[in-house]
Design goal:
The chain is of the alpha/beta class. About 40% of the residues lie in helices and about 20% in strands. A hairpin with a 5-residue loop joins strand 10 (about 270-275) and strand 11 (about 280-285). The protein is elongated, with a radius of gyration of 21 Å.
């Protein structure tokens, strides 16, 4: 799931940028144009009524004052230069997650993994795909890979499939509860595992540190173990990551070294990567053939 390091309240407590303001203006103009066209038509439905338009404007203003993300008002957000449909079933794509995609592409895009280099398509899975932005962006950049996205939410999978169609990316989206190990058997093995899972402790919500607009389970870990998803990804990788494969993870700067330590229990090649601002945000694991160690956990 496309998960922010900062709280959604902090992220969205900002002025509208020019493009977003123009998008809202265009949305309202189109409705106003329809209202003018049908205002004298007795058969016009209520959605084309100027009074309805005024109410829409008031609602948007109220939503903005409450801190509702502009992307939810527009029903879309941008990621890697592409438009992604969003609603309150999925997190809004964050610019920092674009850096994760760029790290993956820089390491795998032109060369692929060893199997892809031998003329075979590599297999990549995005665990907790949300809107599908990571999986779709990677598929667009790395056509040689077979890409799968998984999410526990059927509503998120619906949005992800729509985004794949809009952005012309062939991605297989699967509804599955990754935290239940019984679901892993049908997933098969992969050359690349990617994830930006929930990592905010539930106490942060109880303390009122985040906004209420984004989906709860995409943000919060429902225990005081914020890294439990990463521990599950490690367990999954032991049986489902092909030799020579990679793992790429996003997390909070406060947790990045703890996440790295989790994977160092099993793998010897673990690296912490930075975002565009030089902040350590990502963990990469590379299981070089014949040069990595798997230990029991």
């Amino acid at each position: 799931m496309d998960n922010p390091e900062v709280s959604s309240a902090d992220y969205h407590r900002r002025l509208l940028d020019t493009n977003q303001a123009m998008q809202i203006g265009e949305l309202l103009f189109n409705r106003y144009k329809d209202a003018l066209q049908y205002s004298n038509d007795a058969a016009a439905d209520e959605h084309c009524n100027p009074e309805t338009l005024v109410q829409d404007i008031k609602t948007i203003i109220d939503d903005l004052r409450r801190g509702k993300p502009v992307e939810y008002i527009l029903g879309q957000g941008m990621f890697m230069g592409m438009v992604f449909r969003v609603n309150d079933s999925v997190l809004i794509p964050r610019p920092v997650t674009e850096d994760l995609v760029e790290h993956i592409f820089c390491r795998l895009g032109d060369h692929g993994n060893s199997r892809a280099g031998e003329g075979h398509a590599g297999k990549l899975v995005d665990i907790g795909t949300g809107s599908g932005c990571i999986a779709i962006a990677l598929k667009r950049k790395m056509q040689q890979y077979s890409v799968t996205g998984t999410d526990v939410s059927s509503h998120a999978i619906e949005i992800a499939r729509l985004n794949a169609a809009v952005n012309e990316a062939k991605v297989d989206f699967i509804e599955a509860n990754f935290m239940r190990q019984a679901t892993w058997k049908e997933m098969g093995s992969f050359d690349v595992i990617v994830s930006n899972p929930p990592y905010l402790p539930i106490r942060k919500k109880e303390a009122g540190e985040t906004a209420v607009f984004e989906p709860f389970r995409a943000l919060f870990v429902q225990t005081d173990e914020p890294l439990r998803f990463y521990q599950k990804i490690l367990a999954f990788s032991i049986e489902h990551l092909n030799a020579g494969g990679h793992i790429f993870l996003e997390t909070a700067k406060a947790f990045v070294h703890e996440v790295a330590e989790i994977f160092q229990r099993v793998y010897t090649s673990v690296e912490v990567l930075t975002d565009r601002n030089g902040i350590e945000r990502f963990v990469m694991v590379h299981t070089k053939k014949g040069r990595y160690l798997k230990k029991s956990i």
